[in-house]
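ok so heres the complex, two chains, lmk if somethin looks off
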Amino acid sequence: MRYVYAFDYKHRRPPMDMKDLLGGKGANLAEMTSVLELPVPPGFTITTDACRAYMAEGWPRGLSDEVAKHVSRLEKAMGKQLGDPADPLLVSVRSGAKFSMPGMMDTVLNLGLNDASVEGLAKQTSDERFAFDSYRRFVSMYGRIVLDIDTREFDEPLEKAKERLKIDSDAEIPAEELSKLVELYKKIVKRESGKAFPQDPDKQLRGAIEAVFRSWNGARAIAYRVRERISHDLGTAVNVQTMVFGNRDDSSGTGVGFTRDPATGAQGEYGDFLVNAQGEDVVAGIRTPQEITEAARLASKSDKPSMETALPKAFAELTRIYKALEKHYRDMQDLEFTVEKGKLFMLQTRSGKRTAKAALRIAVEMAKEKLISREEAVCRINPAAIDQLLHPTIDPKAPRTVIASGLPASPGAATGEIVFSADEAELLKSQGKKVILVRVETSPEDIHGMHAAEGILTTRGGMTSHAAVVARGMGKPCVSGAGVVRIDYAKGTLAAGSHQLKAGDLITIDGSTGQVLLGRVAMIEPELSGEFATLMRWADAKRKVGVRANADTPADARTARGFGAEGIGLCRTEHMFFDEERILAVREMILSDDEKGRRAALDKLLPVQRADFVALFEIMKGLPVTIRLLDPPLHEFLPHTDEEIAEVAASMGASTEKLKHRAQELAEFNPMLGFRGCRIAIAYPEIAEMQARAIFEAAVEAGRRTKAPVVPEVMVPLIATKAEFDLVKARIDAMAEAVAMETNVRIRYQVGTMIELPRAALLAGEIAKTAEFFSFGTNDLTQTVFGISRDDAASFLGIYTNKGILTVDPFVSIDREGVGELVKIATERGRKTRKNIKLGICGEHGGDPASVAFCVEIGLDYVSCSPYRVPIARLAAAQAELGKSFTNEG
Amino acid sequence: MRYVYAFDYKHRRPPMDMKDLLGGKGANLAEMTSVLELPVPPGFTITTDACRAYMAEGWPRGLSDEVAKHVSRLEKAMGKQLGDPADPLLVSVRSGAKFSMPGMMDTVLNLGLNDASVEGLAKQTSDERFAFDSYRRFVSMYGRIVLDIDTREFDEPLEKAKERLKIDSDAEIPAEELSKLVELYKKIVKRESGKAFPQDPDKQLRGAIEAVFRSWNGARAIAYRVRERISHDLGTAVNVQTMVFGNRDDSSGTGVGFTRDPATGAQGEYGDFLVNAQGEDVVAGIRTPQEITEAARLASKSDKPSMETALPKAFAELTRIYKALEKHYRDMQDLEFTVEKGKLFMLQTRSGKRTAKAALRIAVEMAKEKLISREEAVCRINPAAIDQLLHPTIDPKAPRTVIASGLPASPGAATGEIVFSADEAELLKSQGKKVILVRVETSPEDIHGMHAAEGILTTRGGMTSHAAVVARGMGKPCVSGAGVVRIDYAKGTLAAGSHQLKAGDLITIDGSTGQVLLGRVAMIEPELSGEFATLMRWADAKRKVGVRANADTPADARTARGFGAEGIGLCRTEHMFFDEERILAVREMILSDDEKGRRAALDKLLPVQRADFVALFEIMKGLPVTIRLLDPPLHEFLPHTDEEIAEVAASMGASTEKLKHRAQELAEFNPMLGFRGCRIAIAYPEIAEMQARAIFEAAVEAGRRTKAPVVPEVMVPLIATKAEFDLVKARIDAMAEAVAMETNVRIRYQVGTMIELPRAALLAGEIAKTAEFFSFGTNDLTQTVFGISRDDAASFLGIYTNKGILTVDPFVSIDREGVGELVKIATERGRKTRKNIKLGICGEHGGDPASVAFCVEIGLDYVSCSPYRVPIARLAAAQAELGKSFTNEG
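and the predicted structre for the whole thing:
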């Protein structure tokens, strides 16, 4: 078995397809060298086979010979020898597994230095300081990584030296001091490892290679593989590469570049360059980098020469390579290079990270350049990143003081005055102020305050808590579950660590990262480019699954249409109940002792509810609208504090006693599993009747106005048995009939149900006998399948993802194995009974790309998500249809 | 097609197998007449075929002829003619569907009476009053049932007549007044139906037959069939039968009888008899009935002659029939008979209802008499009724004042003083008083009070609420969810309707019926007869599935063994945490800020927990014991009221602030779906470690003492993913290893999990890779599959069963379609992965006969239930094994 391949070895397959054998880095270097024939510092890769052999039975037979052969080939190519006291060849040794993996040995640089060759390096670079610093670093790196010596052993003498010399930075340590440190380091190596630091470069190399092999089974690497479900059998490759130096003279230099602007996507060479410098100097930011092109220099008004001027030959070569790389990899590349004595060396290339805006422009332009197909362009965009395009974001360059962190519950950023109640939010908003609503948690009663606020911050609740769900629906930034924040409603203050804030103080929240920031922070406003529309058009051309929006209000519905929603998949009627003018009638209904009283209160609600639906139907004209009957437990509508109760009692003319007693009666231990959903419609059919009547009357009216007949889909929530559904459906059908008789207009409508309980999924075949559509309520299904309340999950879900028990929050991305299996079962059984049953999903998962992919796979008819996620869903659906998810991250 | 069969028609099959055609009543009459050849008043049955034909296309062709032919056959046999003015033949017309069905036409008696024949009846019975009363009843019955006239039309003149005559009872109305009423009734019929009351008996008969047919589609009958899932296509049969009169003279009479004593099961003729009387006289209880046998007369010291003396010939015949009936039906019979002029007529026979005690004695004795097999004897006992034998019951003869009704949560009855807190219960108990603990609901903190109380009454919660489950476990009576009862803890009072009671007042609760009674009520103490042991022995001989008990304390464990448990299927370790001396350490653990603090507190708990297990292991010596790790949310252990918090804070030396804050932190919206089960073991592994150590150390110690090695089964609760299980199992295994090293004893043990979440059921194949046993926690599985919190279900579950949405509370009897399918899926997937995986059930369903049958069907290895239900489970399991459920109710 062959264990070693030079980078220039002509493999039969493209090296990038051989990551199993060569590892990611090795494949990349081989691809650049052997396929693209770029000037890469020569080197070789020891395969993962060698690593596996080593793990099985120690240092593989024949490996030493192969390595020696390849080293001498390197020496010949470079005209230098490892350990040569005059002009030594130096190499780097790097691990490179199939998947990049934190916790594994990373890099040993400058291997080949010893007491003799360090002098050669000093002479060759005319930089004694550099040579000894390189040696010092090599010894400590080798000691730490290969010999497993505690890094503090080396750091301490270094710090002491700086103290003694009264200097701050390593770069100021003079050469002779570095030379002394090397001597000291070698003593430390001897003391700690029991053996002298190896002067023989071959021994150094073997040590480093073995260290890479061993690091595969380091504790952190194993833990990482467990978490990421990477097989322990893969092993890692080892890359040994000639070192080149950008700091030899003024005809040398180093730089990083992008083939297009990673911030905007604009075409043209882009990058930073430093003459007479090493890679780390660029990264360290001590010297201001120079521009690559003369044009960029002029644009930035830099007085330092561009690479184009300073190193014209290398620049020309680099320009050629930029083009070649894009053509070969068919994507924007992020590359590193070094120029040694005028000669350009490519060190690395990979797909470049980019902003969402840049990704969009690059994908669309590459498709127009015919570099990639439209399908590929569609697949190049991370749907999740589209959020960045739709919401204001915090300027990455702006200084920020983070005072707390919570969950990134709804994307975008907002600044405003702190308010602690919904009423206050509304009041200040009416005075023209911008506010952030800060609550322990929100409830449906806070809706008006959430509408008024720029953003919402809660100290409890997860990604699908009330605040998070509603904020996403409204497209407002929200940080939820910021547990470190303590609110004192009575005093009107909040504490976050050492920060004490009060109502009226300014804060900024970043719903994309979960950060809470002090004061006002600079923002970047979203800008929907022409490329956005182009790409969405291409996506829609490939998409088969419908995309609807969850929308409860006319404003939601308008936003949804603007983002391309093809109907409403979920209208939560209860949100219409919380309006200040209506809540009284709702409470009256709940407090009534008998059906007659309830009907009287419902009579007051009928016209307003009907008006709501008329508005929705008009906006969605011709498109399907799914309306869910009242779902939440009735106690959500009752006031809670003594003060509020007294107020409501007074305004209703009811006794405080009675109100309290009813509230107590309705209180529940586990409201999620309580008296809600269709259970309300079963106990108080008159509520469902009022809602059904409002729907059908509104459909008649909207149809008359728009001339486009609406097709309402009436949805019964929380079904566990077919009998429940049938009882409620009978009431709905009766109302449809009554309205048809009264108005002489017969509306086409469907009656269906949410599938949000495991039992409903299992019994889907039965339920489909009478239900005309299913909408999967995967929020509640996830809660019941996992037995996890989304409102209480914060206390342990973090531990779960940290320990790798869950790789992703199941409320964010659908759990394919559990929840997914039930959705599949229901899909199959439902279709078996009723071939053309309409199937959709209206949980929060409808806007999650991975979940949308699942929905496409199992063949749902549509997904429904909050309006702001509609573009995400459209894109994710197209990608799923194309059989892949986005692929631009290297 | 033939539509009519005489009772004496010789069918080819036993008539009792022909209920589809003849209906239940018709089959019974035909069986008695044609097979047993008993003296039954002759008659004929019009088949369900005729009813179906009538529903499809009106009065069937040829039916009139067939009826006429059979009527004249009757006339010949009786020597009388329908409508004969001298000595008329009278008949009854009764409906009789396959299943007895409320809401259908029941009976028209005395058909054949008209203005002329009433005189003949008067003459023949020498009782003008009787004749006219019969006629009056016939006219009103006919008017109401056949002609659909409102019953009030007939009731009103009757009431007025009584007012006028100043008499109270119908029986006092003289003949001439009855004659006038008949005339009035006929006018009412004319007015209301538009037609004169038919004088022609043939027309009367046809009208009655049609009325029976029509009643099949009456609203109440349809609703009943929907609820009971009876097909609407069955139709009903109609029975026309000669009337006989027990009130003709002193050689006539009527009676009811049982072939054995229905209260005790004792052998011998048993019954009541009245000379010169009609059946309704016996039922009305106006006259004191006479005994059947002379022996019984002597025993009851009655001065009225027994039937044996008064009508010796009829008695001899009856005695013969008693024997023949038992021999034929092979069960105790409940029969009705009439003697007309010395001739005995059998009117009905059916399996007799009996007490559990009688059922047991009859079944065992019949098996010993070889009348039935032992297997049949086992199947004759309703397992649910065994509860009656194990608990005191309220004397059915005792007067009672029911002040409220709740759910029959735990069987048995108890009397005691009202107490409103657990501490008070304990205090009064220590003073020798008997108390009933009355709470809105109970929580684990009330355990000591429940132990001290005779019974528990709660105003909230269902059949599987905390109170219900714990009470059943303790074998104490409990009425739960008595919503009408209002408790005022502060005042120490309760109100139930108009009744106001205070602490210290006596009440009695009947946990078998759910009744709450005022004061002390007479009880019957249970008595375990020799037949009980015999029958259980026969049952065990047939049973294959194991029966274990859910037992948390040594007392539970002892009771369980006494009732024949074959191990412990569920030991809830948290119940051990509430003991007053331990709760402090538990709270200390919860309040600790770090692992070190928690470990210190756990160190205090280790010895007590170990001692608990040692005791359990010793009692169960050699039998398997399944111990579940800590399951409930931690906040259940913290105090709730300000007072309690202050007290605990003081005794712990912690600040009230801190305690409150921690309690707030731990509070949850939906604790059922919160931070509990294995989630605690994942977050605080040290708790699981302490418990595992306690288990293994106890196993070593108990093994040393008893010389019988225990096999602990350590159970991880609330698993949703394999990763959770593996993490916790690793800790348990490590503890086993540590204890083995320390003690030099290696314990055989298993680690398994509860399957109580839908996801665990679906992923059972995965989980079984490492889990060695599954125990189905069907309580929680029912909660999550249905999305119903058992603590909150009371508010709508009643409506659900009333409306027929659910036929049975799914927390009482397993839902085969939903929960059952998941249990089956988990069983199949678990066994596919691990062939010999041990499977059991430990939810409340483990003690429910129908659920036990399900467990036997799907092949579980054992069921586990509360100790008092162990005999029930043993019997139910045997019956399931024999492929049938009990069958003694006619």
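quick notes: Chain B is about 45% helix and 15% strand. thats all i got rn
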